[in-house]
Amino acid sequence: MFHVLVADSISSEGLTPLLEAENVKVYRKDREEDNYNPEDIDALLVRSATQVDDALLSSLSNLQVVARAGVGVDNIDITAATKRGVVVINAPDGNTISTAEHTFAMISSLVRHIPQANMNVKGAQWSRKKFIGTELFGKTLGIVGFGRIGGEIAKRAKAFQMKVVVYDPFLTDTRAEKLSVISLPLDEVMKQADIITVHTPLTKETKGLFNKENIPQLKKGVYLVNCARGGIIDEEALLHHLNTGHVAGAALDVFEVEPPTNHDLVQHEHVIVTPHLGASTKEAQYNVAFQVSKDVLAYLNGQSVNTSINLPTIPKEIYKKIQPFYQLGKTLGSILSQSAKTPIEEITATYAGVITEWETSILTKSIIAGFLRNRVDTTVNEVNAATIAKERGISYGEKHQTDSYGYSNIIQVEAQGKDVNLVVRATFIEGFGARIVHMNGFDIDFAPSGHLLYVQHTDRPGVIGQLGLIFGKHETNIATMHVGRMLQGGKAIMMLSFDQPLEKVLIDEILLIPDISSAIILEL
Ligand SMILES: NC(=O)c1ccc[n+]([C@@H]2O[C@H](COP(=O)([O-])OP(=O)(O)OC[C@H]3O[C@@H](n4cnc5c(N)ncnc54)[C@H](O)[C@@H]3O)[C@@H](O)[C@H]2O)c1
Ligand SMILES: O=C(O)CC[C@@H](O)C(=O)O
C-alpha cells in the first residue's frame, strides 16, 4: 500500500486517479481526522503554499516522489530532492490557458482602470473623467518569456489587433513565425512596447530583469504586468518609477513575498493586484491535480511518468521496451559492486544491438544506481545516481558498438580502479529473461538473481568435488551450477546458485581449497 499526503489545497476531482487506486491511501493535511505517520509517506502533493525544503524531505524519510500541482517548482528544493533520490513531478500545461486568460484580464483592467473605477462607483462616486483609459488596438505588446503562457497571450493579443514583440533567448524562428510574433533582443522589446508582460520562470538571470537602471529605457507611460513570479520586475524599482511617472501603471498577480509586504506598491493608485490567482480556475485546478495524480500513481507503480523535473522523460512505448534492461542495469551494477573489493574509479557501459536505438542514458544511470546501492547509506536511484557518483569520485560514461556478440542485445559494464578491472556482459531474451553471458574474460551463461556464489579457480579434476563435499557437510543444496573456462587446465570460473543465503563460514572453508583463488557471495 502506498501512502500519499496532499499538503495543499488541491482539487478533489483531480485526485481521482489516486483516490480510486486500490494500492493507494490518500491523506489530506488539512483534515484533522487523517492521521498519518510521516515516515510512511511515499508521495507528497503540493501547490505553492508548502515549502518542500531539505528539513521536510528528511522528515518524510520514505518519500519517493513530490508532485507540484502547477508549473513553478520554486517552492521545492530540487537539489535536495535529487540528492535524496526523490523524483519531482509537475503539471506544466494544465494551467496555461487560465493564466493566459488571467493575464489578459489584468492587461485589459489595467489600461481601462476597471478595479479603480469599480471601487469608485461602489464608494457612491461617479468620476468618469478620472478613468480615461487607453485602447489595446494598434498598441505594441512586449512579451518577455515566450513559452506556453507567453504563446497563448500572443494569440489573444492578435485578436485585439495588437502588434506583438517578444524576447526569449531560447525562441526558435519557426515558433515565432508560427505564432506571427516578432522576435527581438530585450532592449528592442523594451524600446518598442507600450505594455510589457513577463512570463519567464524566476531564475538568477530573470530576478530583477526589470530594475531601477533599465526601467527608464522603457517608453514613457509604459504599463508593466507580472503574472509569472514576484521579483522578475524588481518591486522597489517599479514603485520608484511609478512615482516618477515613467511607468503609467502595473498589474501584479505575484509578489517577491506572498502575501505582499510592500504596502506602498500594493496600495499605489496605478497598481492593480490579485492574490496569485493566475491558475485559480476550476478547469486549471482539475487539470493540474489530474495530471500529477496520474503521474504519481504511474511512478509508484513503476511505470513511466510524463513530466519529471529531475528524471529523464521516456515516451511510454519506449519505456515498456526499456524496462527489463533497466532492471538488468541495476543488477549488473550490483554484481560489479559486490565483486569489487578495492575502490572503483570509472564505470563504462557499452550497448549493442536493438537497445542502441533507444535513449540509453537512463540505463547507464540504473547501472550506477545498482553499483552505489550497496555502498552508500542513502537511497540511490536513477534520480540521484549521477550526483552521488560524482561525490564519491566515480566517473562514468557510455558507448554504443555494433558487435553484439551474436545476441540481439547486449549490455556490457566495465568497472575500473587502480588495482581492478571487472567486466560483466548480459543480454535480455524475450520470454526467457536476463542472462549473464560473460564475466571477466570468461563466457558463461546464468540467470542473475537470488543467492549466488562466484568462484574463480583452476580447471583441475576434483575441484568441484571438494566444493560439493563442503556444501554437503553444511547441508547446503546447490540449485544450479555453471562453469566457464578459457583453456583446459587454465583459469576458470563457476557460478553457483542456492535456495537460501550462504553462511560466511562456508566461504572461509572454500577458500582453503588450493585451486580456488576467490569465492564471492552475490545477493541479487
Ligand atoms: N500566476 C500564476 O498563477 C501562474 C500560473 C502558471 C505559471 N506561472 C508562472 O509563469 C511562468 C511561465 O510559465 P510557462 O508555463 O509559460 O513556462 P514555460 O517554461 O513554458 O515558459 C517559460 C519561458 O521563459 C523563457 N525564459 C527562460 N529564461 C529567460 C530569460 N532569461 N529571458 C527571457 N525568457 C526566458 C523560456 O525559454 C521559456 O520559453 C512560470 O514562472 C510559472 O511558474 C504563474
Ligand atoms: O498553485 C497555484 O495556484 C499557482 C500555480 C502557479 O504559480 C504555477 O506556477 O503553476
From TrEMBL:
It comes from the Bacteria. This is D-3-phosphoglycerate dehydrogenase. Pathway: Amino-acid biosynthesis; L-serine biosynthesis; L-serine from 3-phospho-D-glycerate: step 1/3. The keyword Oxidoreductase applies. Residues 452-524 form the ACT domain. Catalyzes the reversible oxidation of 3-phospho-D-glycerate to 3-phosphonooxypyruvate, the first step of the phosphorylated L-serine biosynthesis pathway. Also catalyzes the reversible oxidation of 2-hydroxyglutarate to 2-oxoglutarate. PANTHER family: FORMATE DEHYDROGENASE 1, HYDROXYPYRUVATE REDUCTASE. Gene3D superfamilies: 3.30.70.260, D-3-phosphoglycerate dehydrogenase, domain 3 (3.30.1330.90), NAD(P)-binding Rossmann-like Domain (3.40.50.720). Belongs to the D-isomer specific 2-hydroxyacid dehydrogenase family. Pfam families: 2-Hacid_dh, 2-Hacid_dh_C, PGDH_inter. It catalyses: (R)-2-hydroxyglutarate + NAD(+) = 2-oxoglutarate + NADH + H(+); (2R)-3-phosphoglycerate + NAD(+) = 3-phosphooxypyruvate + NADH + H(+).
